[in-house]
Amino acid sequence: MKESSNPFTYAPAPESRELVSIESSYDLFIDGKFIAPKSKKRFPSINPATEEVLSKISLGGKEDLDLAVKSARRAYEKVWSKLPGKERGKYLYRIARLMQERAREFAVLETLDNGKPIRETRDTDIPLAIQHFFYHAGWADKLEYAGHGSNPRAHGVVGQIIPWNFPLLMLAWKVAPALATGNTVVLKPAETTSLTALLFAQVCLDAGLPAGVINIVTGDGTTGASLIAHKGIDKFAFTGSTEVGKAINRALAATGRPVTLELGGKGANIVFEDAAIDQAVEGIVQGIFFNQGHVCCAGSRLLLQENIHDHFIEKLERRIEKIRVGDPMDKNTDLGAINSKEQLQKIVELTQSGEVEGAKAWQPDCALPSRGFWFRPTIFTNVTGAHRIAREEIFGPVLSVLTFRTPQEAIEKANNTPYGLAAGVWSEKGSRILWASRELKAGVIWANTYNKFDAASPFGGYKESGWGREGGRHGLLPYLTQSQTPRVRSGKGARK
Amino acid sequence: MSQLRTSKSDLARDFGISDDRSLSLFLKTLPGVDQVGAEARAVELGTRSIKKESKAWAIDMAISMVDLTTLEGADTEGKVRSLCNKAHRPDPTDPSVPHVGAVCVYNDMVKIARSHLDSIGANEIPVAAVATAFPSGRASREVKLRDTRDAIEAGASEIDMVIDRGAFLSGHYKSVFDEIVAIKKECGEKAHLKVILETGELVTYDNVRRASYLAMIAGADFIKTSTGKVTPAATPPVVLIMLQAVRDFFDRTGIRIGVKPAGGIRTSKDAIKQLVLVNEIAGPEWLSPAYFRIGASALLNDLLMQRFKMRDGYYASSNYVSIE
User: Active site includes B111?
Assistant: First the structure.
């Protein structure tokens, strides 16, 4: 039966937009104030599901970055570095609580700005972002016990560049550990998704965070390049494409300033014949269609044991037919809009290459909205390891299916990639899971699940997927350095 | 998967089942169920937001799927008669409310229910009887068969039997299987057979899947979660596993088996969640009282209250629906 003749078509259930007020234009957040950009330039931020212009965002230039770095330096030297950890922790707790109070507002704003479904912002992005602040708040006064030496110290001013796929969550991954470890921050959000970062700036003001501890300089790639080139920054952290990550690494080579890179991936999801098939199907769907496949650790390569291939693909296709594609503000939407026209073009180009190279594409017969940027969930079968769609990161809702005959072959194929961010293993056999996770070269390995995140769990990659970890105890390390002279630490009276 | 397109009487042969060993081997070929994943999927589908016309449709569909049930030692003829009235006209003030799927009673009340339903012009409403030493199933096969025959003779056109959970848990699958086959034979063309797995006693989802297949191959027309006397009963993940089983079974054999959750579904919200599971796991073809029933008693009134709310725009006092 076709969906159109199904009497149980869910009526629209849109989340209310009334919760958010979006201003017609936004300034930069520097030194605890919203100030107009010295560059005098602004650019539109659109809702990718409707192409409606939501607001005008400031394009931060060199002068703006100078101001931001100066403000962060001043805040570091005068205020933040002098606060004991427990006081920093209090600010983080306060930020977390304020975010919690405004969680729905953040979720709606993120969905409007990014195009991802409200179900995901409401149930995943925002709660996880908040969890990162709560989690790191707890570390602020316990850094000596984090296993990174007896006297861990902050770097000073850190420059952070975050991507558009999880705007607020990536902000939290970056900002929360930086503040907990005593650094001050200059953050550049992604060009297409600045709005939740600017709402976060408001939360910082409401939390009474000292001016300059966080500075948010919106802008495009030129702003990011200027930030990386800025001599006043002690440490960098970047999440984004491998291409940009390499450029950043070249720019910072031999400057002595450390950088953490969390880059692309081509995650392998390996399904063995003894897997719990229905849950594996579900996990494959979560692995590649979560967040429209705009996930660096997406399980974009399905490695299927050959003897279950046809049956599994049949089940997978039936499941994909149930994916609800459309208005991201609808609470029943599973797959939202592609974040930008550029990203859509990239997905289209790579999928076309897949067909040209002889892989077989399949898409469900779902209707797409007439405006905005959309791409149907897609699976490619008959893919070989040499195809571009098996090697390059598509960063969209496109799954490439490869097969294997033996467990050894599965591991070889899974590891045969320049990336090494994440992988999944599906089997009901415990020993096989343990063996496979030892052999796989990936920073994160999920067993019988995929795309599960937690603030307490470190995340990061091997090879061209970057280095450094974010989250957990390990995620504190990149933001800490060892000081030569022990700092005198005690109660309030002892401080100067 | 290769489709057998078989007839119901050939199922055991087509699945290669002849004895305890072959049945046991077959059940072990079924893929396992990952508990965490199955529960996560059920939770995710539980977040579907069903509004407006789809909610109105779902409420009426749910009403038509209710097996309105009373299974108490204290049941009386009067209680059963009023239950029948309620089944026929759930809201006497509004004839647009559909009648329920069936009336479900103990054996000795079948005759009373049947004749009362007929007398009020509700011939189309079947009477379901819980037979086979319900709810424990602890009686000899002879007694169970006799129990079934008795219910059918009294006018039951649906038999809700229980499986021998003790035999299932101790691995005597063929004994469970044979019993279903025997009861099915007793039902013949006269009665539909619903097989109660009592999932709360089977405990694991792997067991639920195996028992579902066992019952389907043995000839069940419906697989039913629970007696309502054991908790947990019809939890969303259990129903999800069973819906997946009937879907897979259909793909393999072309035979469409129904599912009946029973026990613990008390609110309209619970019922609508069940319909979402049916729609997205088994498929819209199962959205009919012919293939999905909900065993319940209190649920019907909550569905009616929600119907009032949708019609009038406000919640009425519970005094506006009859308690029986």
Answer: no
Domain spans of chain A, in order of start = 25-263+461-494, 268-447
* Contact yes or no for A8 and B58 at CB 8 A: yes
pLDDT in tens, B91-137: 999 999 999 999 999 999 999 999 999 999 999 999 999 999 999 99
Catalytic residue among A15, A120, A262, A470: A262
Cβ distance of B49 and A275 shorter than 8 Å: no
Predicted ipTM of the assembly: 0.93
Task: Tell me the fold of A25-263+461-494.
Answer: Aldehyde Dehydrogenase; Chain A, domain 1 (3.40.605)
Residue A29: half-sphere exposure toward Cβ, Cα within 13 Å: 28
Q: What is the CATH number of the domain that holds B251?
A: 3.20.20.70
E-strand stretches of A233-328: 235-239, 259-262, 268-271, 301-305
Compute the mean pLDDT over every residue in chain B, rounded to the nearest whole number: 95
CA distance A34 to chain B (A): 38
Contacts of range B301-309, beta carbons closer than 8 Å, 24 or more positions apart: B302/B266, B302/B267, B302/B268, B303/B59, B303/B62, B303/B63, B303/B66, B303/B90, B303/B268, B303/B271, B304/B63, B304/B90, B304/B91, B304/B97, B305/B268, B306/B55, B306/B59, B306/B268, B307/B56, B307/B59, B307/B60, B307/B63, B307/B91, B307/B97
A-B Cβ pairs (cutoff 8 Å, strict): 81
Flag whether B323 is in a domain: no
Q: How many domains does chain B divide into?
A: 1
Give, for A214, the enclosing helix (H) or strand (E): strand A214-216
| Inter-chain touch A279–B38, beta carbons under 8 Å | yes
Q: What is the CATH number of domain A268-447?
A: 3.40.309.10
